Fold:
Amino acid sequence: MTSTFGVIIAGGQGHRLGGVRKADIRIGGVRLLERVARVLGGLEQPLMVATGPEANGLALGHQFRPVSDIAGSQGGPLAGLAAAVLALRSRHIVDGILVSVAVDTPFLPEDYVARLLSGLDTSPASFAGWNDAFYPPNAAWRLEAIADLPERLDGTASLKALHQQLGGVRVGWDEADDNPFDNLNTFADLLALGKRANRQPRL
Structure:
């Protein structure tokens, strides 16, 4: 049976939010980190959390394993994915599936993992989409296809470029009335996401 691992991309410093780590922000009374982790509960534990260059005070419980960016990398979601690949390699794990998700997407659908995995039937990578929008960090990857990512970070511009190189397939949630991948970048986003959470049942 194929092992499936998870990494939460949480290295953003929230500069447009006053320097608050996005992972620590609460939407509907629940930290973004925990909201995302709940949807990944069926994956191998502990979940990896890509913290950027270092954890910088990010509170992580026993259910999480922090992974830091590779020294000299340019940071960002691509670096977080590479850090997860390297962390798995250090445990002699070089095959299986890695599911990634941006920490600032608080309304992930319950079938997030299952539907992304279905995209791997035809490609070594799949990514989430909703109508005209697509989300390269919210993705599933065959580890064999990205095993050398830590060594070729400088030659890969972005997660979007990596999907293009691999022939990643779009997995759409176009039937959803509200965008399941709404994310948090500004104070306006924070207000909108909070209002949306108040319309939904508490976790």
Notes: The chain is about 25% helix and 20% strand. The chain has one domain: 4-198. The domain at 4-198 is CATH 3.90.550.10 (Spore Coat Polysaccharide Biosynthesis Protein SpsA; Chain A). The two ends are 31 Å apart (CA to CA).
